[in-house]
Amino acid sequence: MPYSACLTALPGKISRLCVAGNTAMTDIFLDRDVSGLCAAPYRTTHNGDETVHLPDFPPIYIPHLPAPFVGGDITAGLAVLRMLNAQPLGTALEGIGLECGSLAGADTITECYLTSSGLAARSLNGASVQSARGISATGYISLLAVLLELKVLDSFGHFVRHNASTPLAAKIAADIAPYGQTLRLSLPYGLWLSASDVEELLKVKASFSLALEKLSAMLPLRKTNLYLAGALGERVNPDWLVALGFVPLGLCVYTAGNTALEGAALLALNPGNGTDFQAKPLCLTDDPQFQQAYCLHLRFVWNQA
């Protein structure tokens, strides 16, 4: 039984809480100084792994905060994954910040796929979308994977408007048109994918695959499991990540769901359990060859260098 379900099954008065959030949200909740998170060199005012007392609340356990941008949500997730003897890896990818980006919801596109007549979409519950207010992170990832497969998008993230390989690709490419100083692909429901959105997603991909490449030099990559957490980890198809070059073919990728919630429930039941680990930040920008390495990863393929 999930730890969160165990908590809801417990009768009686609430005697302890656990707040598992990122460092900024944790310190805002605790009304502590967050200025150290606003500019480099980044720092936190405390390391967590403590029980705090706030007015009108029972005792609150704050998980270990290993680094300025590695918070209690990560620690809580690690606590659960360590029960599985698993190795997690992140960088965050969210729909927020993109032109049609949105958190996943019933009226949000969470998956794009091909039909014989063109692009189609599914919403949060897996149903075909009838109307949509935005596109979630998994919606964008699946869309890019489809466009790459059709060669309507090349590996450098450029729209390909001509020389379509199939009639279906030509039909979709016909919806790519200039918009101001850029290009964008018109999608159903009044939504679109802009060239700038593709660029932002490519930057996330480059950061992710570069970090994974650096870790692979330290760990036996073929013996390492990759666990995807959060809303992305609940709905992403690992094949999309392979197609876009986030991960190499053959790496075992698992979806772990809301590990922060499960970890918070575990730590509420057993404060500190499974959080006795050391975190060593891997600072990619300290490498003199960072710019060159980063540029090599600015492609929707797994870097072979």
Classify the secondary structure makeup into a structural class.
alpha/beta
Beta-strand percentage range? 5-15%
Which spans of ≥5 residues are poorly predicted at pLDDT below 50?
none
Strand and helix order = HEHEEHEEEEHHEEEHEHHEHH
Helix content: 25-40%
- By DSSP, the count of extended strands is 12
Radius of gyration based on Cα positions: 21 Å
Discrete helix count: 10
Arithmetic mean of pLDDT: 84
Shape type:
globular
Biggest sheet details: 3 strands, mixed
- The N- and C-terminal alpha carbons lie at a distance of 44 Å
Strand ordering within the main sheet: 1-3-2
Characterization of this structure:
This protein is an alpha/beta fold and 305 residues long. 33% of the residues lie in helices and 15% in strands. Strands 1-3-2 form a three-stranded mixed beta sheet. A three-stranded antiparallel beta sheet has the order 8-9-10. Strands 4-7 form a two-stranded parallel sheet. A hairpin with a 5-residue loop joins strand 9 (182-186) and strand 10. The termini are far apart.
Question: What is the secondary structure topology, with strand pairs?
Answer:
Elements: H1 3-9, E1 17-18, H2 23-30, E2 50-52, E3 60-62, H3 72-83, E4 108-109, E5 111-115, E6 118-122, E7 134-135, H4 137-150, H5 167-173, E8 176-179, E9 182-186, E10 192-194, H6 195-216, E11 225-229, H7 230-235, H8 238-244, E12 252-257, H9 259-269, H10 290-296
Parallel strand pairs: 1-3, 4-7, 11-12
Antiparallel strand pairs: 2-3, 5-6, 8-9, 9-10
